[in-house]
Amino acid sequence: MWRRCFLILAGLLSLSLPAYGQGGAAPTFADITYGSEKAPITVVEYVALSCPHCAHFHFDTLPKLKARYIDSGQVRLVVKDIPNNAPGLRAAQLARCMGDDKHVKLYEVLYKTQAQWLNADFMMGLARIGALAGVGPAQFQACMANKQVEDFMIRRQQEAGQRHQVMGTPTFIINDGAARVEEASEAKLFAALEKLGAKPAP
Question: Which pTM was predicted?
Fold first, then answer.
């Protein structure tokens, strides 16, 4: 597991890091998306990096979702992180502080290594992952202290609850509430998509 993650992190080192807390670029608030903006069905997946079921969906179900519905242009997936505890919040801050060109890859690393950092010493574990990705101690501390990122993540969580009554992760909101799935159930999600007209790719 760590060998695979190390290779991903090594790739991140080839990209320049924003200098947060040192007059650098603002942290990214872009969502992770898969598929065409013109797709007739949009699925918003609310996730938390500290959620084991979200990690399971990312590695086990997402590839099938892409192959059956996304790659054919029928479905677009928008991933929105809404941390539900302190470890998830700090992990999301670290990912967001990496910039658009890195935070997608770091999400995969954080999901894959949950067992290594999701514990009482989560800050130490996240600092280790950050260091492997080229984030030095000063940059890591600046990222963790970045109120702009922290406030954005907390506000997004509140908005998800108020707009769509999202109470846990993962939750899938389809076509702005036309349908919803409140668990990482491949069968229920695919059934909801097909009820709205999506057809599995041959």
Answer: 0.84
